[in-house]
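Predict structure. Input: Profilin, 136 residues.
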Amino acid sequence: MAWDGYIDNLMGQDMEDAVIVGCQPGQEYVWASNKTGKLKDVTAEEVQVLQGHDRDSLFAKGLTLAGCKCTMVRDGIKDDFVPYVDLRTKGTDNSAICVAKTNQAVIILKGKKETHAGVVNDKVLRMADYLRKANY
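Output follows.
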């Protein structure tokens, strides 16, 4: 499947970066990404932490995505509709990031600094729902 079109669909004037990464054990590699963004550097370990069982630690200590420190805002990873996590980057950037999980992938979308988190969340959840229904 050609995944670049999905990245193009996610990106827009309000978005800064996007990546789609495999989420099955041993397959946590980048399927597609915004070529000029930093999220393409997300590691397998970072993807595993996002899906891990120690959810309290993520709220207390935060996490990194492609080396960028983030604070967890909302944990919906156990959501029946589409598992997701809302994050905020730390530091001067302070951008919204939403991560949604499908059957086989994790979609990560970062909004521009001025983009409302709800806009980022909505875009990712719709894409994840579509991919889940297509058995991805």
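The chain is about 30% helix and 30% strand.
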